[in-house]
Amino acid sequence: MNKTSPVAVNTKSMTFRRSKTRISDKIIPILLGLCALLSVFTTIGIVYTLLQESVIFFKEVPVWSFLTGTTWSPILPPKEFGVLPLLGGTLLITGIAILFAVPIGLACAIYLNEYAPARVRGVVKPVLEVLAGVPTIVYGYFALETVTPFLQKIFPNMGIFNALSAGIVVGIMVLPMISSLSEDAMRAVPKSLRHGAYALGATRFEVALKIVLPAALSGVVSSFVLAFSRAIGETMIVTVAAGATPQLTLNPLESIQTMTSYIVQVSMGDVPRGTIEYGTIFAVGLTLFVITFLLNILAQWVARRFREEY
Amino acid sequence: MEQLNLGDSKGINRRRRSDQTLHIIFLACTSIGILALMALIVTIVTDGIFRLSPDLFTNYPSRIADKAGLKSPIVGTIYLLLLMAPLSFILGVGAAIFLEEYAGRSRWVRLIQLNISTLAGVPSIIYGILGLAIFVRGMNLGRSLLSGVLTMTLLVLPIIIVAAQEALRAVPKNRRDASYALGATKWQTVSSAVLPSAIPGIMTGVILALSRAIGETAPLIMIGALTYVAFLPENLLDSFTVMPIQIFNWISRPSEAFHELAASGIILLLIMLFIMNIIAVWIRNKYSKNI
User: Which family does it belong to (chain A) (predicted)?
Assistant: First the structure.
């Protein structure tokens, strides 16, 4: 009889395991949920620290004069805290990067999607992915040691530190982002639309421009916005190659300073807490955070709102 | 009829020509990216290759270029990697499992999801400011290895969570159904049926995220990873430096010799990233067929 009782033994061990697993099934979701909540705490932490120190800063420097002042001179007297030169420097770099990366990235996406044979595609895509994985400090070196000397042959009076070189290299950095996200969006356009256009006698360019691009427009535009946001937050390339001269200029051959490279510059010295220099890190950081945050939200909104469903 | 055909063939010729011209333009644009990568590699290798020597591994950073090495930065980068890996793996995969397997689709979950994708787009220097305010000053951890590890973990978490979620989503539903049918509980199903087949994908994502982290410079400058460290960190509260920071320090010096050192440091950094990427791709290819 006893030999046929494994069933009973089994149920016994099962009930034992049940009670054990029931505890784990109660505790584990809570632990996992805490991991997920950590991301929320991170966001709260970012917003809280930026705001808290910025509030102290804005007690000494009125928000209005911070946002509209055209001189940034935080260390040398007369101290002035107008963020516009830093913002202008950032936008100059970003503008050059976008002018460089948008046409080339889009052309790249169209080529890979409509023209390239599968074999070429199989080589080019991984190469672009490598480009996306290069650390930004390496790009900084490239800007300073290769791109700037090359550009100095074209513009002999250009200094070592200039916006153009840094802007182009930031453009190279965001290029893979635009090409790969745009290509994904174009790839998602149904083949039947393409075949219909070909059947009507369209050329590949006409298919790309009049059929695929409009259908994939939301994804393509959102890739531009994301690249824009990435370029604004880029730090090491501009710190190494664009100089540290906060000035409002549209001349790409001049040295400028961006919001990010200012933050790096000031934090390299040991800034005592509670000083106004320490406050500038957070005020400029808050400005940077708000801009990139709004752009990221915009990119997500564009991708969702204008998506063509097939 | 004749005229119409003629007109059409003229039109089609013009359109074909413009199609071919644009083909060439698109190809040229695509090759710019590839040329840039080649130029970058050629520059760095020609500048730095003759500075590559065992001294680079055994010497500490120095003010004299010929004596300068990368010992403390290399060790710092490896420590950072080894400490970050388990922490970011556990927290990231935990969050991904919660969101994919437990949470359902309520409004709160969508908000957490939106929050994670937004965090992935926050500039890395902002994480540096967060680390400076919370870990270095707030918790009084100082400019230590621990501050660096915690800051960088927060930085890579969104990337790891998204990658792990994709890996979990790729596990076929019938594995879960089969597990439930055998009487397994939720956690047994997740841990014994879902995770094993998702783990290669998760590992690939984690390694790629970590390889991004060890190339990061700005956040660690913010929390004050020192550039002149002539000792190896012995505990979590010691100060430290990492390879990108030492490279940045060398680039910032006017002397050409230090730029060559920077290039040789970049070669080492790129080799390290290359190996990590090879491992990630290898894991992906080896296990992707088995699911």
Answer: Belongs to the binding-protein-dependent transport system permease family. CysTW subfamily.
ipTM comes to 0.89
Phi–psi pair at A160, nearest 5 degrees: -65, -40
Q: Which two tokens stand for residue A16?
A: 């034992």
Chain-chain contact of B244 with A37 (C-beta, under 8 angstroms)? no
B119 CB near a chain A CB, below 8 Å? Answer: yes
DSSP B61: P
CATH class of the domain defined by A78-306? mainly alpha
* H or E element, residue A275: none
- Rounded Cα distance, B257 and B138, in Å: 40
- Window 233-252 of B: residues touching A by CB (8 A cutoff) are 244, 247-248, 251-252
Burial class (CB in 10 A: 0-12, 13-18, 19+), A20: exposed
For residue A72, the surrounding DSSP H or E stretch is: strand A72-73
Q: How far is B202 from chain A (nearest CA, A)?
A: 16
Q: What is the pLDDT of residue B15?
A: 87
Q: Please give the Cα distance from B209 to B214 (Å, whole number).
A: 9
* Count of alpha carbons within 13 angstroms of residue A76, beta-carbon side: 4
User: What gap in Å lies between CA A173 and CA B58, rounded to an integer?
Assistant: 33
* A300/B117 touch (CB, cutoff 8 Å), yes or no: yes
Q: How far is Cα A208 from Cα B185, in angstroms, rounded to an integer?
A: 51
Q: Please name the residues in contact with B127: beta carbons below 8 A apart, sequence gap of 6 or more.
A: A46, B151, B152, B154, B155, B219
**C-beta of residue A91 within 8 angstroms of C-beta of residue A85:** no
Exposed / middle / buried, residue A152 (Cβ in 10 Å: 0-12, 13-18, 19+): middle
- The CATH number of the structural domain formed by B54-289 is 1.10.3720.10
Alpha helices in B49-106 (DSSP H): 54-58, 71-97
A234 touches chain B (CB under 8 A): yes
In this predicted structure, what is the pLDDT of residue B53? 84
Tokens for A70, please give them.
């055209």
Tokens of B90: 């556990």
Query: How far apart are the C-alpha atoms of A234 and A260, rounded to whole Å?
Result: 7
| Residue A21: per-residue pLDDT | 61
Q: What residues in B contact A268, CB-CB < 8 Å?
A: 221
Nearest CB among B26, B118, B273 relative to A107 is that of: B26
Amino acid letter for position A264 = V
Are B267 and B49 within 8 A, CB to CB?
A: yes
Domain range annotation of chain B: 8-51, 54-289
Asked if residue A7 has pLDDT above 50, the reply is no
Comparing alpha-carbon positions, the chain B residue that sits nearest to A112 is: B30
pLDDT digits (tens, 9 = 90+) for B196-245: 889 988 998 999 999 999 999 999 998 887 667 777 888 887 888 899 99
pLDDT at B280 > cutoff 70: yes
Is B169 in the A-facing interface, judged by CB distances under 8 Å? no
Q: What count of other Cβ atoms lies within 10 Å of the Cβ of residue B198?
A: 25
CB atoms within 10 A of CB A19: 8
Place of tokens 């783990």: B199
- Which helix H or strand E contains A73, and what residues bound it? strand A72-73
Number of A to B CB contacts under 8 A, please give it. Answer: 256
B5 Cβ under 8 Å from any chain A Cβ = no
- Asked whether A127 and B34 are in contact (CB, 8 A), the reply is yes
pLDDT score of A10 more than 70: no
